[in-house]
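Fig. S4 source data, part A: sequence.
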Amino acid sequence: MLVDSKLLLRPWAPEDGAEVFEVCQDPAIQEFTTVPVPYTREISKAFIASRAPSYLNRDVISFAGVRSGELVLSVSLHSIHEFDHVGEVGYWVKSTARGEGLATLAVRMITDFAFGIGFRRITAITLPENKASQKTLLNAGFEMETLLRQGMTKRDGSQTDAVLFAKFPSVAISD
């Protein structure tokens, strides 16, 4: 678990499935993330089953974000390449918890954790119109690196540009 006074990042639990199903009905989450659409109860159960055994495995590092006992977000590192010590952060936030800085906090917490276990670069990719996510990443210490031309496929099958962000561990310089 990762703990802050405002947010607890904990492993997923089987009882999270119903809440994940409800949260992932949000049109904004469906538009700006890669959750399957339609998002069914079976998909929610499969998501929880793949995450609940451990927050940490070779393919993904994933946490449920809880505030005052309420599940409010998901944050994970995926697309992990162990040899290169890199991964990509992804997250969603329950609509009633947006605008409180919780996504920024969760992204900081998971990237600090990742750097602490040896990651050297964390990336994130957003749609150009997803200004809220871009603000989250900038506030979490990421830098906008480049525009990936035709870098994402939209749900309707069309190609669109994507914006690439990256964050690196702090480096202490000694004499």
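Fig. S4 source data, part B ends here. Helices lie at 17-23, 27-32, 41-51, 102-116, 131-139.
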